[in-house]
Design a protein that fits this description.
mainly alpha, two-stranded parallel sheet, 6 helices, 2 strands
């Protein structure tokens, strides 16, 4: 395994030196934190998320209250009443789960809101990165804030401040 890793590393090194490719890094988290509209959009999303979560929590508390009442009254209820109450509890729980899915699901309202608020900012950043890439004649740009395993990167390679300047936000 070590031999394979070393071989691939050497092969990659030879390929990079042979082509003399130019590359750089950006820190997307750093860039976004320095853009006021991103922070504003993020705050809006957090407020909306908290509001919707409280709505879901209220419904779930109602379900728990209904179940607790059902448990205390269980001995006094006929079979028909038991079935009816159980169905009411299940229906209320399903409604709460549906509301949660509507707000927070993969295609939910929070996802749509995040898309509408964040996509324009991300597109603007991407366009600025493309422009800087063309100006500096770069072939490859890495995002050092992503899950990529960067052990060390030279500050000379970081073009985050150049991108912020291109966007009109200078430090």
């Amino acid at each position: 395994m070590k031999k394979l890793f070393i071989s691939l590393f050497l092969l990659a090194g030879i390929a990079f030196t042979g082509n003399a490719q130019k590359f750089a890094m950006v820190d997307m988290e750093y860039i976004m934190k320095n853009i006021p509209s991103y922070e504003t959009a993020n705050d809006q999303l957090n407020q909306i998320s908290k509001k919707w979560q409280s709505e879901v929590d209220i419904q779930m508390q109602e379900v728990q209250k209904m179940y607790k009442n059902y448990q205390t009254e269980l001995v006094f209820l006929s079979e028909d009443m038991k079935v009816k109450r159980e169905e009411e509890i299940v229906a209320k729980e399903k409604a709460a789960q549906e509301l949660k899915r509507t707000y927070f699901g993969p295609e939910g309202e929070l996802f749509k809101k995040r898309q509408s608020l964040m996509k324009p900012i991300q597109d603007e950043i991407y366009t600025a990165i493309q422009e800087v890439t063309k100006e500096k004649d770069l072939e490859l740009v890495f995002d050092k804030s992503s899950a990529m395993s960067v052990i060390f990167s030279s500050p000379k390679l970081d073009i985050s401040d150049v991108v912020l300047q291109k966007l009109g936000y200078s430090k």
